[in-house]
Design brief:
- By secondary structure, this protein is an alpha+beta fold.
- The protein contains four helices and eight strands, in the order H-H-E-H-E-E-E-E-H-E-E-E.
- The termini are far apart.
Length: 144
């Protein structure tokens, strides 16, 4: 019985949890999403693709949890990092996708991926649309 208080004290010490360092839970402000860009965007226009192709693909890009982002351009799920470089440029890095083979539907995602591997996109918000332009001549327009 003399050991009972000691045993209780040891159990209490073992069951306590430490409060995590708040520095670990704070989002780096440099990579935090710009509020106008945060959200899920439906693809409305894409250079080289018809309105019908885009509507059939039901393509979207979800930037609601930046820098983590995901998209579907009609076939595979894409996951990537979306990093705002400055007030007009965004970079998409570390693009990975599922490995489904779709004929025509893959052209959208291939064009997006190829351009993204070539550098940053210029972005703007006009008339409630997110417009992404790449120096390769590719333009994408999204609606909320």
């Amino acid at each position: 019985m003399k050991f009972l208080p000691l045993l209780c004290a040891a159990l209490l010490c073992a069951c306590t949890t430490s409060i995590p360092n708040q520095q670990n839970t704070i989002v780096n402000q440099q990579n935090a999403p710009s509020l106008p860009l945060a959200g899920k965007w439906q693809l409305a226009a894409f250079t080289g693709f018809s309105t019908q192709q885009i509507q059939q693909a039901q393509a979207y890009m979800d930037l609601s949890k930046m820098p983590d982002a995901h998209a579907n351009m009609g076939c595979n799920q894409l996951i990537f990092q979306a990093k705002i470089i400055d007030a007009t440029q965004i970079q998409f890095d570390n693009i990975a996708s599922t490995l489904m083979a779709c004929d025509e539907e893959m052209k959208l995602e291939q064009t997006f991926s190829q351009a993204s591997h070539q550098g940053a996109w210029t972005y703007s918000l006009q008339n409630n649309r997110l417009i992404l332009r790449h120096e390769m001549g590719v333009e994408m327009q999204f609606t909320p």
